[in-house]
Design goal:
The protein is built from five helices and seven strands. It is an alpha/beta fold. It has one domain: P-loop containing nucleotide triphosphate hydrolases (Rossmann fold, 3-Layer(aba) Sandwich), CATH 3.40.50. Helix 4 links the parallel strand 6 and strand 7. The longest helix has 15 residues. The radius of gyration is 16 Å and the shape is globular.
Length: 200
């Protein structure tokens, strides 16, 4: 079992040469800016502010490695789809994301990508581009449908059905409704992380 109280921010990597290669599994979080990646990390680890929830989405361009009990890294990738980024910020984001996902010599340490999608919005064009890459990469992924507490019961059912049948989400992909504020989906997310990382 993981001791989720034993957690540190190991590094906020601003360059690909800073990516960690410690021989423990990595689980990456991908999604558009303001989809709730920091909130998910704080919720999973029972912290209020371990991962900083920015009031200005899209401004932080780093790959953040959270070391959990020296057995696992949660890797928070920069959020995409933020229209107000400068050209320089866009270039830095692209270099980091490409460096981690495509040119990473330690990609074998990446066991799973949690692709986060706002359940109220569904996949955006940027999400669809990412899903296309995931489907061709061979890297296992699961969809975490965030902010589910903001949907009515009928909306939630309809939106989950829409994700399940979405042409860019591979058949059989786990889809987990999640709410950081209500704690919905925590157990399911931890279960899929533990399975992917081989932690019992």
């Amino acid at each position: 079992m993981l001791n989720t109280q034993n957690v540190t921010l190991a590094i906020s990597a601003g360059r690909p040469d800073q990516f960690l290669n410690e021989p423990i599994p990595q689980i990456a979080l991908s999604g558009r800016s303001n989809v709730g990646k920091s909130s998910l990390i704080n919720s999973l680890l029972g912290r209020k502010s371990l991962a900083r929830v920015s009031g200005t989405p899209g401004k932080t361009v780093t790959v953040n490695y959270y070391r959990v009990d020296k057995k696992l890294f949660l890797v928070d990738l920069p959020g995409y789809g933020y229209a107000k980024r400068t050209r320089e910020e866009q270039a830095a984001f692209s270099a980091l994301t490409d460096g981690y996902l495509v040119r990473n010599p330690n990609i074998d340490l990446l066991r799973l990508i949690l692709q986060m999608i706002d359940i109220r919005v569904g996949p955006t064009s940027d999400d669809n581009a990412m899903l296309g890459w995931l489907n061709s990469s061979g890297i296992p992924y699961a969809v975490v449908a965030t902010k589910c507490d903001k949907c009515s019961k009928s909306e939630l059912t309809a939106n989950i059905d829409a994700l399940t049948s979405h042409p860019n989400i591979a058949d059989g992909t786990p889809i987990i409704p999640f709410s950081a504020t209500k704690g919905i989906g925590q157990r399911e997310v931890w279960s899929i992380i533990s399975d992917a990382a081989g932690i019992r």
